[in-house]
Amino acid sequence: MTHISAHSSNNLDLLTRxxxxxxxxxxxxxxxxxxxxxxxxxxxxxxxxxxxxxxAPRQAIEVGNWLALPGQLFLTLIQMIVIPLxxxxxxxxxxxxxxxxxxxxxxxxTFLYFVLTTxxxxxxxxxxxxxxxxxxxIDQQLMRSVVSQPGTAVAAAHGIPLADLPNxxxxxxxxxxxxxxxxxxxxxxxxxxLIFGVALVMMSREQARPILELMASLxxxxxxxxxxxxxxxxxxxxxxxxxxxxxxxxxxLYGMAVYVATVISGxxxxxxxxxxLLLVFTREQPWRFLLRVREVxxxxxxxxxxxxxxxxxxxxxxxxxxxxxxxxxxxxxxxATINMNGTALYQGAATMFxxxxxxxxxxxxxxxxxxxxxxxxxxxxxGTPGVGIIILALxxxxxxxxxxxxxxxxxVDRILDMCRTAINVCGDLVAAKLLSLWLPVTxxxxxxxxx
Length: 451
What we know:
The chain is mainly alpha-helical. Helices cover 75% and strands 0% of the residues.
């Protein structure tokens, strides 16, 4: 008899059927609506903000908060269902793959790929910042006054003591999965889900069926909520960008232009690295790939949330990139949690920038610490807006750069957050495409009774 093949097939059909509604939004030119919303949001924000000054600053902030209400509702809906969506998608992706041997190979290669590309991303961020040196364009004397002793804690740049490493590794396993869900500990949730899913695959079909049916229903509910949220996408994009632009104005952008340009340049280099991988291994022309995934990347850019576009990423990987459903449903949900290459690049670039501003030479050893801490910090971070700043504080503290410097870059962080989220999503799609070629998965249709 088959193991869980019939159920896996039904689950995959269900995902396709549920994603049709979201695909309908794309066919209805959602991407064009989002582009218009971006232009209108920035324009209205400039009129309200300090650059033009139609309203007093306090009034502009109040109006911006009301304009951002649909955007906040959109993000809240997504954040509300991101954990159950990840759990359901990973378990069903595991169930759709082949036997335990295939899962072992798929998981190992996927994790290795994510770690290596994350290291490459951080190296690009550090390298481009060292090359351009944007810190020289900031008044260092002014920034040194932000903290009383800017050079303190440099000696702490030695990372995590080896003696503490075993406890930290054990801490990755959730003692109480429900507590991890409440606290939003995404890496613990993913590890728990992987262990649970692998155990489910090893069970008999009759034993596994109730859980798989529950996961199918759970995913259906999540997809329906995502569908509701997607109808708000143009209004959400308009309101969030209007609020952002009204708050910071153009002057803040001009003052940090070199830093912003440095990070964006690094992200573009990372994008070219992805496209080069596709060209070498799949002979896919870069412009054709970007054309196929443009809607997902545009929506990721405008919402700053890789979790928000995860269902569309799965749909795009399956239909536009011809990635097998078993790989798409396994790689993309995990990638949305641990494959934060755009965020990792940002950590490296921002850390080096603030070190330049404060006149701190962290050296080669400090750069290695940045790479290690940023890799660990980006893995398991939630795919929601603003999380990069939280991780950055950890990275800065690890190399003795005053965290007070975050105040300098927080004003332009949302713009960079949008850019790095698009790169994060692009990285997930590229990973799914490459892994589908390197690791062809055989559907579970030939497993023996009792396997």
